[in-house]
Amino acid sequence: MLEIYLRDHHGGSTAGLALARRCRRANEGTEWGDVLADIEAEIAEDQTALESIMNGFGIAPSPVKSAVGAIGERIARLKRNGRWTGYSPLSRLIEIEGLAAGIETKRNLWRALGHLDGGNVVDAARLERLADRAGSQLERVRAAHDRAAAVTFAGHRVPASHAS
């Protein structure tokens, strides 16, 4: 079960890193650019940490699951975003939501690995630092999300017939 779990998370980290890179590139020069660049760099470091942990167990990443993660991220680009072509404020909002979901999942990974019995392949203090960093990433991404939502929906009003 551990092998499947770690390989699944590695595939997810491949998708998450691709999403972080795309989101960062699309937002260079905007108010989101710096935070997304930092998040991207940390996600890359976290993937390296996961690979190190997997290596400690003698588990190699699954090329198939990594490819599925990368392909899945590309397929997710095919969503409607209110424009026929290009990047829109809705694209940013949805991508940041995807980053938040991936980061929360990653934080759960680090916490789950803390429940392994025996051995010293995974250092508890390292897992705690990784979980704390994921928490910090989540806070920064949520702040970016709140600002992106405000920009995306600026000037939009709920029609009177739909107000509660």
Q: How would you describe the overall organization of this protein?
A:
With 164 residues, this protein is mostly helical. The chain is 71% helix and 0% strand. It has helices at residues 2-26, 33-56, 63-76, 89-113, 124-152. The longest helix is centred in the C-terminal third of the chain and has 29 residues, at 124-152.
Q: Structural class of the helix and strand makeup?
A: mainly alpha
> What kind of assembly state do the chains in view correspond to?
single chain
Q: So what's the CATH class?
A: Mainly Alpha
CATH fold description: Ferritin
The geometry reads as elongated
What is the tally of helical segments?
A: 5
Distance between the termini: 47 Å
Residues in β-strands, percent: under 5%
Q: Please summarize the sheet with the most strands.
A: none
What order do the SSEs take from the amino end to the carboxyl end, as H and E? HHHHH
**Spans with pLDDT under 50 lasting ≥5 residues?**
none
CATH architectural label: Up-down Bundle
How large is the radius of gyration?
18 Å
| Overall pLDDT metric | 87
Number of strands: 0
Fraction of residues in H or I helices = over 70%
What is the number of domains? Answer: 1
